[in-house]
């Protein structure tokens, strides 16, 4: 059975990630797994320090460093266990039938790859422990996960408490956005939600936009069309989302034309950085 995987790292995003993942699990009716990965990589500061220890006391100090590393690993393990238990209790408020906890050693991306066959949706905070106090900075793992994982990815803002009833779907007329419309139709997370189909362009609305709207409506989706004017796609989409109090933004992980490649000055990156609502990256 496939699970919703909530990636927990101990940052301030952990509770919002859990809440968003619980909403997804409740909506799709599938189990929720709270995943905490202990990165076994040795801290860079320790590696540099060991290279500058004098010859006379080198062995003794390296032994002490090894003991400190062992203590730190034990504390991190215990902390993760307590964190998972607390978040399991928090997730129970969403009345989910099955909630599981997993704690693994290793790398987050590799761990998610190993779990791919049983993963329905991955849920992450847009920032991790290192940048948790800076809402304009994206987490270091996020790009790697997006590039490596083929499941849908829900990216959580710092707070999530209200289940969305509508979503913005950005359309640009490209082949990829055409496929995105089809995937949105078939994505259970979006079933029954109002779709705000938006296009940002200073030209006349193309027939492809009307065709996309028609396809959505044929499948029973309530569609609100919006042709937005502006030179910066991300700013126009975010302004529209805020003005209409829309609870979710759906986009592809990759795009073309005005929606450039992910993390290369892309519209997706700017929206992700500045959004205050969850972003669903449809794969």
What would you say this structure looks like, in words?
The chain is an alpha/beta fold and 283 residues long. It has two domains: 3-41 and 75-156, Rossmann fold; 166-256, HUPs (Rossmann fold, 3-Layer(aba) Sandwich), CATH 3.40.50. It has nine helices and ten strands. A ten-stranded mixed beta sheet has the order 3-2-1-4-5-10-9-6-7-8, sandwiched between helices. Strand 6 (166-170), helix 6 (175-185) and strand 7 (194-200) form a beta-alpha-beta unit. Helix 6 (175-185) packs parallel to helix 7 (207-218) and helix 8 (233-243) runs parallel beside helix 9 (267-274). The two termini are 19 Å apart.
Widest β-sheet, arrangement of strands: 3-2-1-4-5-10-9-6-7-8
Helix content: 40-55%
The protein's oligomeric status is single chain
Q: Unreliable segments (pLDDT under 50, ≥5 consecutive)?
A: 42-47, 255-265
Can you name the CATH architecture of the largest domain?
3-Layer(aba) Sandwich
- What is the number of domains? 2
Strand and helix order: EHEHHEHEHEEHEHEHEHE
Number of E-state strands: 10
Going by CATH, the homologous superfamily of the largest domain would be HUPs
Assign an overall shape.
elongated
- What is the distance, rounded to the nearest whole angstrom, between the alpha carbons of the first and last residues? 19 Å
- How many distinct helices? 9
Summarize the biggest pleated sheet: 10 strands, mixed
Strand content: 15-25%
Question: How much is the average pLDDT?
Answer: 85
- CATH topology-level name of the largest domain: Rossmann fold
> Gyration radius, to the nearest Å?
21 Å
